[in-house]
Structures are given as structure tokens and as C-alpha cells.
Amino acid sequence: MRNKLRFIFLLWFAPTFATHSASAQLKTRNVVLIVSDGLRWQEIFTGADPNLMDDKHGGIWAKPETLRKDFWNDDPSVRRHMLFPFLWGTVAKQGQIFGNQNKGSVAHVTNGMLTGHPDPRIDSNEFGLNPNTTVFEWMNHFPEFHGHVAAYATWDVFKNIFNEPRSHIVLQCGWDLPEKGKLTPKQELLNELYRTTTRLDDEDVWDSFLQVPLLEYVKSAHPRLLFVGYGETDNWAHAGRYDLVLESAHQFDAFVKQLWDTMQAMPEYRGQTTFIITTDHGRGSGLEEWKEHGVEEKGSENIWIAVMGPDTEALGERTNIDAVTQSQIAATTAKFLGKDFRQGSAEAVPALPGLIAGSASNAASAKR
């Protein structure tokens, strides 16, 4: 299960805290970066893979007819909506989505999702504390964001990626008990579930367990920059259970909708929040290769990126455009909040082009 290399998003950072506004008059005051671990672009753009909906290649335990009823249609555009109703019914209509290679849109892993540039020294999940600074830590130094930057993730290693001892951002990762202090009965129950539930993986808590304290934190603390990392889509793929990959991908879509609806119901977020939704890496595309990923697994370099918010031009599914990269997400995150991350990290690549309505970046090339 854990014989895998997730792509760590790291970069050396020179501690300069610029006050320059990257984009004037933006409506966005809050950004949420959401990652579903190892969720392939193939499922995002074409839905369930017909070659994996059986026991031989997909390892399914569910009855094939049940799986087909929930996730199958001969039309790829219909079945992708069946799998991701919020992504295709709301995000793609109100925002933009990159990465459908069948339509001339390519999104690549370059590492540096959180930092804008990779660090070649980091070549293992066991590296330890990140010596570099993420855009989240950088943003936390600005007075208007300090104390309002947080990361909630199922994967325990994010404590090292965000360098918990140094960054001082709010972190809830892995199986650490989510509730502290004087607890309500609901909070006590959640902690008890964390303590007593049999673990599929010692480093990854269940997505549903993370969702509960995440929503409570948003309601009570009102973070302005938030990272959310869900892990089940990767874990079930490594386990060879394609039926559970589909179920967890479908539930991931529902969790994102629930978070969006919760925030849009709050005056602090309504009409002034941008979601960036993506994955950390792809994986293989063969009958066995879909279970794995890494530098030796062809296809792992292909990802997808979706963006929706009050400043994002509603261009929908992007087609026939220059390639975009994972490393552009860091500068994009800061840009929506009116900051230029490249003033803090000269090596960071520019933000994704064509997102902000009326922005000069619409005419810029994204090729990296």
C-alpha cells in the first residue's frame, strides 16, 4: 500500500515578504486549494474506465451491474458527469478545467505545486521536514493573513511538507486527534472514532473523518487560505480496487460540493472565494499500470487542474491550448489573493494564464 512516491512540492525560498499587489480590484478574498491524491485525468474527463469494471483487471467486489448503474453510460460526457456531478455541473460551467489530452489540453506534473519550483534534493516521502517554504507559509507572514492559513489533509506527511514546527500555520493531518480542549459530545465522538477505528493505512486517515473537523474549522475560524488534501483515491488504486476508486472519487466530488456550499452560505466567503481543485500526480493507464505511479510509470506525469471563483472567467473545459504545469499553482494561489509569489521566490514560475477575466494574462502563454 505504501510502496509509492508521492510528488513532494518543495522549493528553497528567500524570506522577502513583498507587499506588492499582483492583481488590483479582485473580488477573491479567500482561496481553497483542494487535492485528490492520484486521481487520474482519464476518470475526470471520460468517467469510469470500461476496461477496469470487472474483477480480473479492476479487482471489483461490487456486482458489475450495480457499478454500471451508478457510473456507466456509453457517452463519456455523460458518465463523467455521473462520477463528478459537482465538477462538471458547477465548476466546469462557472470556471475552467485543464488537462483533457483528448482535446489538446495538457497539464503536467513538474513538482513545486506549493512552491512554484521543485527541489531536486527531495526524492523520498521519508525526507523529513521541508527545508523550503511553501506559498502557504509565505502568505502567513502577511499581517492580513497571519493566523488565517491552514492545511487539513488525510496524509500525515503533509506535516513535514508544510514544516509544522517552522511554518506555524494551522495543521490537521493524518490520525492526529482533531479536537482539543473542552469538547462537545460530537467532538468527543469524533476523537473516539480516530482512536478506535481500524486503519487501512497508518499515514492516511479516512476522507470522511477529515471532512467533519474541516467543516467545523471553516465555520469557527474562517481561514482565508486553506489547503485540503484527500487521499482515498490513491489508496484504493494501490489496493487494486477500482470499484472503490470510483466510489471515493464520487465522494470526493461530494465533499468538495459540501465545502463549497458551506462557505457560500457564510457572509465571509459568499461571492469572494476561489477554489483550485487538482491532483498531485497521475498514474499508469494499462490494465495493471493504473494501480501505480512514479517516475518510472508512464502517464504519472499527466494531471488536471480546475478553478472556480468570482474572478475566474467562465471558459469551461479548455481545449487546444499551451501546456500548463503543476508548478504554476503556487503563483496562481497568491495572485488570486493580490500577491506576487515571484517576489518572494524568483525561481517560481508564473501563474496559470487565462483565469482572471479581463487580465492581461489571458493573452500569455502557459508553456513551461
Q: Could you please describe the fold and organization of this structure?
A:
The protein is an alpha/beta fold and 368 residues long. The protein is built from 13 helices and ten strands. Helix 4 crosses helix 5 (85-94). The model is unreliable at 1-23 and 360-368 (pLDDT under 50).
Strand content: 5-15%
Output the helix-strand order: EHHHHHEEHEHHEHHEHHEEEEH
Mean pLDDT: 90
* Low-pLDDT segments: 1-23, 360-368
For the biggest β-sheet, the strand order reads 5-4-6-1-7-8-2-9
Q: Describe the biggest sheet?
A: 8 strands, mixed
User: How many strands?
Assistant: 10
Net shape? globular
Rg from C-alpha positions? 19 Å
Total of helices: 13
Terminal Cα separation, in Å?
A: 33 Å
Q: What structural class is derived from the secondary structure elements?
A: alpha/beta
Helix content: 25-40%
Give the tags.
single chain, 368 residues, alpha/beta, 8-stranded mixed beta sheet, 31% helix, disordered N terminus
